[in-house]
C-alpha cells in the first residue's frame, strides 16, 4: 500500500499542467526538463552556440545571417520541378551546407558562405544533422532579438542526398509576380510571404551595395519590431551608398538600404494591405511570423517522423521600442498603397533626421 502511494507520487511529479493539458516532463541527465527525451541533447548545443556563435546571446550579425540561412536552405524545394520528373530539392535538409560547393555558387546565395563556415564546426562537433542544425540555430538566434516570437523547432531531418537545383531562391530584382509564384510553389500564400519578410526587421545587406557592408533594412536591426513595415512604406529619396545596384531602390533614411523586392511587395495591390497591417501590431507580427516560419522550417520534410523540441528554444524578451516614424519623417512621407485602410497614426521621433549606423561585423 505504502509502495503504491510512493510510485503514484513519483508519476505525479513528472506530470505538469501546460495550457490546460497534462503533459509528462522528462528530466535530462544535465538536469534540464523537456517534453521528450529525444530533445535532451539539444541543451548542450544551445549553450554552445549562444556562447560561441552568437557572442553570448546577442541579436547581431551571426543571428541575422543564421536566419537568412534557414530560408536559403528551406526554399531549395520545388514541387513544380518534381511534377516535371526532375529533382526538386530536399527543402530544409541542410543541403546548402552539405553541398556547399554547389549551392554557394548560386547567385542568390551570395555571401551565405560566411555563416556556413561559422556554423560548420558546430555541426561537426555535435551529433546533429546539418538540416536540423540550421533551423535550430535560426530559432535560437531569433530568440535573442527583443520582440521576437519563440519559434517552433522540430527535430529529425535526415541528411541531404543532393544539392538543391539553382534558381529557387528569390532575388531582390525579381518581380512581385515571380516572387509570389515561387512561394506559391512551396505552399505559401501572399499573406504568408509578407509574414516571412518580417525577417528583414533584423537584417542588413553586405552585398547589394558592396561599398557599404552591414547596411540595415530598417532603423532597428537588432530588434524584432514593426519598424521594417513602417519604413519600407516611406518615400524613397536616396541611395545610402552608390546608385545603380541591381535589386536596390531608393530608401528614406541615410544608412538604410531598401531592396527592390521589399519596396515592390509593400506597394503591390496583392500584398500592400497585409504589409500595412503589421505596422504597430507586434502581436500579429509575432504570431504570423511564427506560423510562417513553422512551415518554412519543415519544407520537404516528413513531420510525422519529427519530435517537437520547441521547449529548448528560450523565451525572447519583449520588444524594447514603440512603433514610430524616424526623426524627420511623418505621415506625409508615407506612400499609401493600401486602399482599404488608412495608415496608422504614429508619433515622430524627436531630433535631427535619423541616420542609421551599420550593423557591426563580429
Ligand atoms: C522575396 C524574398 C526575399 C528576397 C528577395 C530576399 C533578399 C535578401 C537580400 C538581397 C539580402 C541581403 C544579402 C546581403 O547582401 O548580404 C537579404 C538579407 C536577409 N534576408 Fe532576405 N530575402 C527574401 C526573403 C527572406 C526570408 C523569407 C527570410 C527569412 C525567413 C529572409 C531573411 C533575411 C535575413 C535575416 C537577412 C539579413 C542577413 C544579414 O544581416 O546578414 N529573407 N535578403
Automatic annotation (TrEMBL):
Residues that, per the record, bind heme b: 200
UniProt-annotated catalytic positions: 72
Ligand binding (Ca(2+) 1): 73, 91, 93, 95
MF annotations from Gene Ontology: heme binding; metal ion binding; peroxidase activity
CDD domains reported for this sequence: ligninase (cd00692)
Pfam family, one: peroxidase
Compartment(s) of residence: Secreted
Domain called Plant heme peroxidase family profile: residue spans: 67-342
InterPro entries from the UniProt entry: Ccp1-like, Haem_peroxidase, Haem_peroxidase_sf, Ligninase, Ligninase_C, Peroxidases_AS, Peroxidases_heam-ligand_BS
Co-factor: note: Binds 2 calcium ions per subunit. Binds 1 heme b (iron(II)-protoporphyrin IX) group per subunit.
Cofactors that this protein relies on: Ca(2+); heme b
Site (Transition state stabilizer): 68
Name of the top EC class for this enzyme: oxidoreductase
Stretch list, region Disordered: 343-362
Highest taxon in the source lineage: Eukaryota
One GO biological process term: response to reactive oxygen species
Disulfide bonds listed in the record: 28-40, 39-309, 59-145, 273-338
Keyword annotations of the record: Calcium, Disulfide bond, Glycoprotein, Heme, Hydrogen peroxide, Iron, Metal-binding, Oxidoreductase, Peroxidase, Secreted, Signal
PROSITE patterns per record: PEROXIDASE_1, PEROXIDASE_2, PEROXIDASE_4
E.C. no: 1.11.1.-
Binding site residues for Ca(2+) 2: 201, 218, 220, 225
Signal peptide span: 1-20
Bias type Pro residues, positions: 347-362
Protein name: Peroxidase
Organism: Cristinia sonorae
